Amino acid sequence: MFVDIHCHLSFPEFDLDRNEVIERLKLAQLSLLIDPGIDVATSKKSIALAQEVDFIYANVGLHPHEAAQPIKASVFDELSALAVLPKVVAIGEIGLDYHYADYNRLAQHDACREMLRLAKSLDLPAVIHCRDAWEDMLHILSEENHSAMRGIMHCFSGDTEIARECIRKGFKLSIPGTVTYKRSLLPEVIRAVSLDDLLTETDAPYLSPVPYRGKRNEPAYLPIITEAIARIREIPLEDAARGIARNANELFRLPGL
Q1: pLDDT tens, position by position, 175-204
Q2: CA dihedral in degrees (186, 227, 32, 161; nearest 10)?
Q3: What is the CATH architecture assignment of 2-252?
Q4: Model pTM score
Q5: 3-state SS string over 128-194?
């Protein structure tokens, strides 16, 4: 019973063989897939896919790359309307990304705060994208903190200290295929935190695990990530999969996992 809590299955990279990809993930024993939006258009596609397939759910999001300029109020209005539709289970992906030199820091901050407030107003988890921006991200989360704040650090890339701070703020750490890479810091993090704080994702079509690195990623590869977590924590695969599915159930409030 494996769970992929962040997979862009609605992206164009899967347009030619999406049905086949879905059949392969079923054979791989995935019981849950969450497809996140990164803007209004992709959020609509995520919701449409979720409404077609019973075990797929959607997030409504605004990726920091979409905040190259200040976001118009009408965009937030559209996202707010989408976020209350059936099968939407979180707000995300949202956050900060300073990796490329032309990022707009202020616009990203404003968009991130607005989306965090939307998550609060709807009592939904927030799915955070953070790349090369941990200090500012943690600062914003501290300022926007509230008693029910919860969510996911998508494709977690921080060290153990950052991991513990994220957990203190109510966030679980989502482990992608990079855990299988030779220079990954994730094994140290996985050993340092509780299994209760971990989730799994492919972030497909990106970040394929070894031995598929360099090829298009897909959700059928998710068990490789869970196997890596089980091996690092020295526990049976079944215990790792069961615990991670339970974490997803508790966070997204989904029955039957």
Answers
A1: 999 999 999 999 999 999 999 999 999 999
A2: -20
A3: Alpha-Beta Barrel (3.20)
A4: 0.96
A5: EEEECCHHHHHHHHHHCCCCCCCEEECCCCCCHHHHHHHHHCCEEEEECHHHHCCCCCHHHHHHHCC
